[in-house]
Amino acid sequence: MLLTITNAPRDYAWGSTTLLAELEGRAPSGLPEAEVWFGDHAGDPADVAGGGTLDAITGGTLPYLLKLLAAADPLSIQVHPTREQAQQGFARERGMDADDPTRNYRDENHKPELIVALSDRFEALAGLRPVAETLELLSALPDAPGVVALRDRLTGGADAEVLRRTIAWLLSGGSGDAVDEIVAALPTARPGRFDGAVAAVRAIAERCPGDPGAVVALLMNFVVLRRGEAIFLRAGMLHAYLAGLGVEIMAASDNVLRGGLTRKHLDVAELLAIVDTAPGAVPVQPAGGAVRGYDIPVSDFALRRIEVAGERTVSVSVSGPAMALATAGEVTVSGADGEPVDVRVGTAVFATADEISLVLRGSGEIFLAEPGRA
């Protein structure tokens, strides 16, 4: 069975007022439009054409959550727990109200995720940079007291431990005037290979004045994705999306520990307990050809990007329940009964688990989500 599913954009403050409207070919609403959820998560289950929500069909059992994400301003610096950490945290908070803003754990699941760029440029912070490289970046700044203090904090010891204690120093309030002094030094940085990262952090600091998360961002890898490129973010990896439009898929969870660039609840101790501070670059997965599967080392979800062109018909096997999300053109999807269903850009077709193959026709682009096979 095929069902058309839609959802209203979530109006988080960092959302774009134009990107989703442009994608869907409609007039902007005038409000921030940040995310559209296609899933059965209790926080915002998708609407089913004809009435009802997707969780009534699935029983809330989908292992993944598919989203459109449109950022005009930086999201919070954040990290997601492993499944074991989520189960322990959820048990500790069992007595808290579900809507308590100080609650960290909304469910018992982990939240690894993949983001694929839909805009020509998508900016993100992903993972922590090796300490030697960050010291190289800081060597391009003048010797302001805060810069010197940060260099000293990053010296001596293994990278993971040095980064953990530096993040704790910044987020715990013990850094004094260092954050403002470091930010003030950024405009006078000597040119070098970290120019993009410095410019990104300057923009972050302008939007979030006085926020120590801006200096945490200075410790992170600055990543620019082109359309169709992707990064996978494992549980425990510090990250923040900065600007752009993308398709995001993740394990079905809403567990987030925040480390700055937000007015929402920060629990520094809990963030430090779950963050993985082992540094390293995050591989960028290339856009690929007409059919592109992304490398996802978890069993919760799989994602393929499929181009359908002209007279070409694409038949794909699926391991349901699956979703086909349209992001360009005009595409129809057919299941076992052969009846085509139009998929308007910005909406999706949900295929129940009894569907084992889908036929795509038309001219456009589909992102096909399903449970993983890892």
Q: What form results from the Cα inertia axes?
A: globular
Bin the helical content. Answer: 10-25%
Average pLDDT, all residues: 95
Order of helices and strands: EHEEHEEHEEHHHHHHEEEEHEEEEEEE
Q: What is the CA-CA span between the terminal residues?
A: 26 Å
Radius of gyration: 21 Å
Biggest sheet overview:
9 strands, antiparallel
Decide which structural class fits the backbone. Answer: alpha+beta
Number of helices: 10
Measured by DSSP, the beta-strand proportion falls in: 25-35%
- Report the strand count: 18
Unreliable parts:
none
Description of the molecule:
By secondary structure, the protein is an alpha+beta fold. The chain has helices at residues 19-24, 54-58, 83-92, 131-138, 145-153, 159-171, 178-185, 195-207, 213-218, 268-274, and strands at residues 2-6, 35-38, 47-48, 64-71, 78-79, 113-117, 122-128, 220-225, 230-233, 239-251, 257-258, 291-293, 302-308, 314-317, 322-334, 341-343, 348-351, 357-370. Helices cover 23% and strands 28% of the residues. Strands 1, 3, 12, 13, 14, 15, 16, 17 and 18 form a nine-stranded antiparallel sheet that branches. Strands 2, 4, 6, 7, 8, 9 and 10 form a seven-stranded antiparallel sheet that branches. A two-stranded antiparallel sheet has the order 5-11. Strand 12 (291-293) and strand 13 (302-308) form a beta hairpin. Helix 5 packs across helix 7 (178-185). The two termini are 26 Å apart. The mean pLDDT is 95.
